[in-house]
């Protein structure tokens, strides 16, 4: 289980929630997922994004899989994973940062999330704390991550 931030390409006149409902309604758990089929422009966007994150945040590792391009950041702030599939993306942060230890990784996650929005043209939303990435409060998100992590460490280990 991870703390997740989701990104979608929201069409003009639609909201993030409407777009997410449309994506979810089309989901068939019985169907085989379609392999990723990125355009040349989408691959160029990914290249710009990974270069920018490397330059502005720090070293990363990336890999291409059948269903997404994936980036890992394991730095002083902590660990996160970014998956990109062209018209959608997600950032995942493990629940291993209790209390104040959550602030550095959440600040880094929001920094990267805002880069995803700028470079990819996707809209990001943090459903954990019900806020858009563009205007979201990092401290609120860190408090949520830190609180759940503290609970998990106390009850699940």
Written account of the structure:
The chain is an alpha+beta fold and about 160 residues long. The chain has a single domain (about 1-155), classed as 2-Layer Sandwich (TATA-Binding Protein), CATH 3.30.310. The chain contains four helices and seven strands, in the order βααββββαββα. A seven-stranded antiparallel sheet has the order 2-3-4-5-1-6-7, with helices on both faces. β3 and β4 form a beta hairpin. It is globular and about 45 Å long. The two termini are about 15 Å apart. The model has no long low-confidence stretch (mean pLDDT about 95).
List the helices and strands and how they pair.
Elements: E1 2-8, H1 16-26, H2 40-56, E2 61-64, E3 69-75, E4 78-84, E5 88-94, H3 102-120, E6 123-126, E7 131-132, H4 138-155
Antiparallel strand pairs: 1-5, 1-6, 2-3, 3-4, 4-5, 6-7
Helix pairs in contact: 2-3, 3-4
Keywords:
single chain, 157 residues, alpha+beta, TATA-Binding Protein, seven-stranded antiparallel β-sheet, 24% strand, globular
């Amino acid at each position: 289980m991870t703390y997740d931030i989701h990104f979608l390409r929201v069409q003009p006149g639609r909201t993030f929630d409407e777009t997410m409902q449309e994506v979810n309604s089309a989901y068939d758990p019985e169907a085989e997922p379609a392999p990723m089929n990125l355009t040349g422009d989408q691959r160029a966007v990914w290249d710009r994004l990974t270069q920018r994150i490397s330059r502005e945040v720090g070293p990363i590792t990336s890999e291409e899989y059948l269903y997404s391009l994936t980036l890992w950041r394991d730095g002083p702030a902590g660990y996160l994973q970014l998956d990109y599939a062209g018209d959608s993306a997600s950032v995942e942060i493990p629940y291993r940062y209790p209390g104040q230890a959550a602030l550095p990784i959440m600040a880094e996650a929001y920094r990267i999330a805002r880069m995803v929005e700028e470079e990819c043209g996707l809209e990001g939303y943090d459903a954990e704390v019900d806020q858009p990435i563009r205007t979201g409060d990092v401290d609120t998100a860190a408090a949520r991550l830190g609180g759940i992590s503290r609970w998990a460490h106390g009850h699940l280990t």
